[in-house]
Specification:
792 residues, mainly alpha, five-stranded parallel β-sheet, two-stranded parallel sheet, 32 helices, 67% helix, membrane, cell membrane
Length: 792
Amino acid sequence: MLTRLHNRLGLRTGPAIFFISALIVVVFTLAMALFPGPVQGAFGVVSSYLRYEVGWFYTLGTTLLVVFAVGLALSRFGRIKLGDDDSEPEFSGMAWFGMLFAAGIGATLMFWGVAEPMNHYANPPLYGTDPLSDQAATQALAISNFHFGIHMWALLVVPGLCFGYFTYKRKLPPRVSSALQPLLGDRIHGPWGKLVDIISVLSTVFGLAVSVGLGAMQINSGMNYVMGVPISGWLQAGIVAIITGIALASALAGLDKGIKRLSYLNIVLAIVLLVYVLMWGATMDTVRGIVESAGAYLSNLPMLSFFNDTFGGGEWSGDWTVFYYAWTVTWSPFVGLFIARISRGRSIRAFVTACLGLPTAFVVIWFGIYGLSAFSIDRAEGTAGSLTQTIVTDGNVEAALFQLLQSYPLYLVTAVLALIVIVIFFVTSLDSGALVLDSMASGHEDEGPKRQRVFWAVSVGLVCAVILVTSGENGLNALQEVIIVIGAPVMALALFQAWLLLQALREDAGTARPLRTRQWKRVLPIEEYHRRAHEDEHDLDEYVIRPEYEVGTEPEYEALQPNTYHRQQALEGRGLLTIGLTGGIASGKSLVARDLAQRGAVVIDADELARAAVAPGSEALTEIREAFGPEVIAEDGHLDRQALAELVFGNTVARESLNDILHPRVRQQIQRIAREAGPEAVVVVDLPLLVETASAGEFDVVLTVETPAEARVSRLVHERGMSMQEAWARVDAQATDAERRDVAHEVIVNDASLNDLSEATRRFWDDHVQPVLDEHRATTAAGGTVTDGGTP
């Protein structure tokens, strides 16, 4: 039935989610309009219990989300992008921040920028603080920053991370239920998924309605304060209608043309107004106060993160902190989906850092300028106590901003500018909300019929307007009670989403590889070692006198080597210059090695040493048999290289196991031959697996020979008789040219004639080897000495 109705209306959305949400919104709005008292009474009982008895859940839950967001950003998952691995951000930093801030808490900052610091200044909630004192002022700014800073943004960031990951990484529908996919699987399209989406749509509608309602009341109050316009529900409904109309035009224009431009304009105008207040206030005192308030916020943050006003019966916490966080979390599905949409292509680390750090820094500056300016006016001779009277005593918080601006020049101009900024802030909240509500209901971001966006924008405006007209302040209070109740399951859902996001990241990124460390032998004092040497029950292979590690247990990427006795011995026997020569199979590396040998270098072929290490009867061959099975040993006892190649090429784990067996033995032989070459030799180690064995740090110079992969495959096919498939398998199994370039001091590109290759080898010798030889000869002639690496 719903599907048929959906098709008749020409919609392109999810029928069940759309119509059920719409029905509940309509029924609830009518009930609140006709029976505001009973509705508020019913929800008030539950809301009161949640605020004052279970308020700790909101405080603790929000703090846990902060810890989760920061921990995730600092973890290895922080590098993962919200989108494909090669995706890039769609919007510039300024445009992105403008939309982020406008859709988030920009509107509420205009409302509470003056009112909240003054409330906490006059009625300090922290124990033992005197009202209207310097301590109360500092704490008031810290508390205001706490309510609108990191914690409030964590309520938006974590859902944003979930939606961004599941929508743009796993390509699931842009719905809240998509975040439950690790638990529900394809049942996200079933009843439970639809229930979650309906709750999210409703919470967004009511959360936005509260914001727009407060905005209409503030605009009406400002018009009354500036122009003498009366305050009435009908006028506020008209203001809501204007906001809704502008939001509709913006939403229909789309994200790039409408919301982006309005957000950019709004953030610029808000900054202009902010700078104006700073200029006409006590500027240097305000700047000092901003810095001091930032410190007070950070120093009080651990305490405030768990503050529940225990000795006040939880009343202040319930009225302020719980209300803020319950309100914010009700529209976190909308803001989360929106900021995820505009943040596609950014990494989790960049997303969390920017979404927590930048808005919080702006909030600190905002409250610092407006709050300190308000304190200054409230303490000044002639206006002393004026703001306290209006905001705290009279409860007219809507007029707070305009009364502050009245104390400065150009009052009419700045008041009108403030009204424009407030209107645009609420417009950008409503138009972005209409877009996201449409996406949540339809399950896709493709542009659907415009009537759907119109419906959601009008729904929010209608809910707010009807309540303001029929019930006034009581209706808005009833709606506030409702969002406290709705906020409880949405907060629980946000915590659940965080856990499911972590599970999805582990599934997609895999488990981190175990950290590989050196395994050291047990060191005994010399006298104890000799004592045990004369006792038969001790195995001396388990002990050493000098600190030493087990060969073969080196870390995967050996950036530094410990200064052990054996390391010192290896360095003492080192040649004048050691060169690590590497390159892909059939790259021409052996030709370069031959040219270097002709110029006097001692060339050590690691492949030859590896073949010698696996001679019949060798310990290495026995370990290879145990690791890979008897089928890799030929009938004559030699290693069957073809059989082994079939196992290791294309299998990273198998190749690493083979390297673990051969590399330590090959390294020992390289060090032995290098020592025998003498301290004045130029030693070249032809090491194909230099990158794979992380051996670059063992050489003074690393030289790589590079040839296009197609040319190498052709050589393997025509010169070595390999099949095309086998040749490509050999090439793909080795390190890439880019990986070799990362560790190389010099690259020879072998893509021309043999003469060109010889000429490139000569240039390498002249640039890297000959200067060392010349310096050595000069030092020797002068009677000096030379240490390893050619440095006198």
